[in-house]
Amino acid sequence: MNNLGQPNKNEALAVDARQEIDLKVGVAFTRFQTRYFQGKYGNLDSSVISYGPCQTPTLGFCVQRHQEISMFTPESFWVVRPYIQKSGFRVELEWERGRVFDKEVAMMFHKLVIDGGAAKVVDIVKKDDRRPRPQGLNTVELLKVTFR
């Protein structure tokens, strides 16, 4: 802000030209779409079917996300959640591996924990944990919130 200069005239004119092109293409294509789709689908409110250059990529994101959600097939997984109990206190232990998608492997780890019988503390980590600030709801984030 301390070193502001004169705006570049050519860049400013390019922005003006882009806005005008977007407006003209939007008006023409909106008129075309509205006339094309009128009466084709009974449940479509086709009084005006708007088009804008920003709507096309946004629609692409929405369709892609819808396809990901539609084609998703849930997969079973197992988590080992060991804990220790001493003097009436229960302490949950963290397992770095996280989810295991193979039941036999999960059962093997479960057996190792059960058969171990003793635990040894090898490291203590102290960390401050804070909740991150909420993200802005861009198109993708808005869809994630919507479909939860």
Automatic annotation (TrEMBL):
Introduces a single-strand break via transesterification at a target site in duplex DNA. Releases the supercoiling and torsional tension of DNA introduced during the DNA replication and transcription by transiently cleaving and rejoining one strand of the DNA duplex. The scissile phosphodiester is attacked by the catalytic tyrosine of the enzyme, resulting in the formation of a DNA-(5'-phosphotyrosyl)-enzyme intermediate and the expulsion of a 3'-OH DNA strand. Keywords: DNA-binding, Isomerase, Topoisomerase. This is DNA topoisomerase. Coiled coil: none annotated. The keyword Transport does not apply. Transmembrane segments: none annotated. PROSITE patterns: TOPO_IA_2 (PS52039). It comes from Chara braunii. One of its GO terms (biological process) is DNA topological change. InterPro entries: Topo_IA, Topo_IA_2, Topo_IA_cen, Topo_IA_cen_sub1, Topo_IA_cen_sub2, Topo_IA_cen_sub3, Topo_IA_core_domain. It comes from the Eukaryota. Belongs to the type IA topoisomerase family. GO terms for cellular component: nucleus. It holds the Pfam family Topoisom_bac. SMART domains: TOP1Bc. It catalyses: ATP-independent breakage of single-stranded DNA, followed by passage and rejoining. PANTHER family: DNA TOPOISOMERASE 3-BETA-1, PROKARYOTIC DNA TOPOISOMERASE. SUPFAM superfamilies: Prokaryotic type I DNA topoisomerase.
